[in-house]
Amino acid sequence: MQRHILSRNGLLAVAVLLAGICAPRAHADSFHYRNLLIGDRATGFGGAYAALSDDAAGLYYNPAGTVYSEELASATVNVLSISNVEFEDFFPDGGSLEVRSSGLVPSYFGILRHIGTGTIGFSITVSDYLSDRQSDRGSFDVGSAHVDQFLTGDGDYRHYNIGPSFAQALNQNWSWGASLFGTYRDEREARSIGGDATKPGAEAGSTDRLYVLTSYRIEDTQIGVRPQLGLQYRNGAFKAGWTVSRDFALTRDYDYFYRSVRNLTTTNADRSEALVDYLDASADSKSSEKQAHPWQFSLGLAMDLTPSWTVSVQVDQYLSVDDDIVAGADGASPPVTRQFDAVTNWSIGSEWRLSDRVGLRMALYTDNANLDAEDAGAFERRESVDLLGGALSASYRDDTRTYKLGFYFSSGDGHGTLGDLGELNFGGQSVVDINATNFTLIFGATL
Questions:
Q1: Per residue in 393-439, pLDDT tens?
Q2: 227 φ, ψ to 5°?
Q3: Which of 112, 155, 313, 323 is the most buried (most CB within 10 A)?
Q4: What is the residue range of the signal peptide feature (predicted)?
């Protein structure tokens, strides 16, 4: 089943925007905080960039480091992004539901300018981007019943950070910086499960037939701001960086619609048909209640072990969100707001400058889940998978530009639920074991 997801500075921006227009799919979800690694060199470090951030991508990771940047602009495109999520034992006969996606995604564009001992900059970051298209049909037997079933789904998820940044050197060793991003989140999801189950009836020669169609639709748009404050210290080969940030929702438009139709009939031996049971239930929930988001604290340390070898490590701490859950309009609607668990992610990366023109980077990182699927509300989709990832990239610099090519991947096991569709699956399970794998190929250019 496919989940179908000017000046030189100006040309970089146009390239990123065109990529966005052409990008039909990619991997992303709302259950992790590190769905896409941002920036080309930063990706090679696995996101361990708060202590470095000395290029245009530093506007996103730690603006304080941009005072040391020799670059003026940076653009990164995820040339190919592939993900696979397998819901094990999803169907009553033990079959798995496999969801795949692939596509092209622009992830970052940043431009900066030096003013005295400081910098100003502007960046556009795509931190989440997904379009999935699901379609699956199957036939199987459950006890004495024969089932013909279908499952369809469409999902579109977008998360953008757009805004200015400023940084200033305080003295020879210290610098500070700040960013104020406008944030836009748009999530739209529609899924349906339905089919026929037939089995011998109670009377001789009779047949019972159950028809089920259950579907739901969610549309959720949030607009907000994300202030970020950064500090950086440098002393010879040693570097350290600290950042703190949080998303604040300003407006929200949430709409959920659910409908379930069940029709049970009995066909007698003489071919006459009788309606045994019929149910047509629906629910509609609308809200402007704002979703709270966690504080994020990052600490990074970097060291030039030799003139050509740099190692960087970083810990990202996301605090829990414990605000009261706002329930849907009735028991058939998922909660309007969520609570999130505290999450700690780490990354460690290394860079080797093989010559004045060629560099190589590799890294390991984690992307842990921010909630537990076992706590899912009615018709709430959740995936709880802790991911371990790796990254590898190389760069080449000519007289005016640097080109970077690389990839990153992650995988992990956990559990999840597809909005209770499994439970409605003629006896299938709601929460099942899942495994996930992701692979992304990136290309970047800097001036």
A1: 999 999 888 899 999 999 999 998 876 554 455 554 478 899 999 99
A2: -75, 145
A3: 112
A4: 1-28
